[in-house]
TrEMBL record:
ATP binds at residue 35. GO terms for molecular function: ATP binding; protein serine/threonine kinase activity. The keyword Kinase applies. InterPro entries: Kinase-like_dom_sf, NEK_Ser/Thr_kinase_NIMA, Prot_kinase_dom, Protein_kinase_ATP_BS, Ser/Thr_kinase_AS. Coiled coil: none annotated. It catalyses: L-threonyl-[protein] + ATP = O-phospho-L-threonyl-[protein] + ADP + H(+); L-seryl-[protein] + ATP = O-phospho-L-seryl-[protein] + ADP + H(+). Residues 4-262 form the Protein kinase domain. It comes from Dracunculus medinensis. This is non-specific serine/threonine protein kinase.
């Protein structure tokens, strides 16, 4: 840490702390986040998991993924240096919007949703599940025009896309199959993406309750909160299709990114960010979605 000037603590966890720092030899004074994790008392399995996070971060290079710079280890701690997102979290932004008493414009909702979907699609193309996608883990740049997925502490690489079944993640974003203890794949990340979309629309969690069992029951039954009538019918359909309790009929990311409602937004975003989704040549084919519901939507981006 001697190469970094500590500015302030921005977060604490059970085994570590996140600090806003500045590299001392950087003439531009660029701010970074340094996540320092104590290795004291950790089991070999926990230490391996932490090192796995570093290896995952090294592999991810995308405008919608928080940037990794370097990592270094001392005798009893590991420090990971990452990109600083000055715009805060999507959760904070939603809370601020809620206090204003008005919804985001639909075009804004679709823009943010599509960026998250693009970042998630990139992770899946690397055979990595996020496993803890939530608005608290979605970060924004200073102007809040670009969103970035962060916090890969419980992400898992899918070896040859085999199914993972460990019960992890934030309860309010867990998919029905996880709540029932069944195995899962990318479709559980997509369910969480649907929860994020609902939250962007309604400025509240899709599934809430007084305790975890009550939340789990709502998730298994697919009983999310009502969706306001002022949103377009296409957006209503999109939310319903993603929050499908049947993982087999829940759309794939390629279905979402190429459906008539999202594809124009996706193309516009990629022109701005200068990158296309992984294997985009296969995906930008109008009308080839496997999802009948999404394929028949009319284009709308109110």
């Amino acid at each position: 840490m001697e190469d970094y000037e500590k500015i302030t603590v921005v977060g604490r966890g059970a085994h570590g702390v996140c600090r806003l720092c500045r590299r001392k030899d950087d003439v531009f004074g660029q701010k970074v986040i340094v996540k320092t994790i104590s290795l004291d008392g950790l089991t070999p399995e926990e230490e391996t998991a932490i090192m796995g996070e570093v290896m995952l971060l090294k592999r991810l290079h995308h405008p919608n993924i928080i940037g990794y710079y370097e990592s270094f280890r001392t005798e009893n701690a590991l420090s990971i240096v990452m990109q600083y997102a000055e715009g805060g979290t999507m959760s904070q932004m939603i809370s601020e919007q809620s206090k204003k008493g008005t919804s985001f414009p639909e075009s804004t909702v679709l823009n943010y949703f599509t960026q998250v979907a693009i970042g998630l699609e990139y992770m899946h193309s690397k055979q990595i599940l996020h496993r803890d996608l939530k608005t608290e883990n979605i970060l924004l740049n200073k102007k809040r025009t670009i969103v970035k997925l962060g916090d890969f502490g419980i992400s898992r690489e899918i070896s040859t896309f085999s199914l993972a079944s460990t019960l992890v993640g934030t309860p309010k974003y867990l998919s029905p199959e996880i709540c029932e203890g069944r195995s899962y794949n990318q479709k559980s990340d997509i369910w969480a993406l649907g929860c994020v979309l609902y939250e962007l629309c309604e400025l509240k969690k899709a599934f809430d309750g007084d305790n975890i069992p009550s939340i789990v029951i709502k998730i298994i039954q697919g009983k999310y909160g009502s969706v306001s009538s002022h949103w377009s019918s296409e957006l209503h359909t999109l939310i319903k299709s993603i929050l499908d309790v049947n993982e087999k009929t829940r759309p794939l990311l390629k279905d979402l990114l190429t459906c008539p409602l999202i594809l124009p937004v996706c193309l516009s975003i990629n022109l701005d960010l200068g990158s296309l989704p992984a294997t985009s040549n296969k995906k930008v084919q109008l009308g080839k979605s496997n999802s009948k519901i999404l394929r028949t939507q009319a284009v709308s981006s109110r």
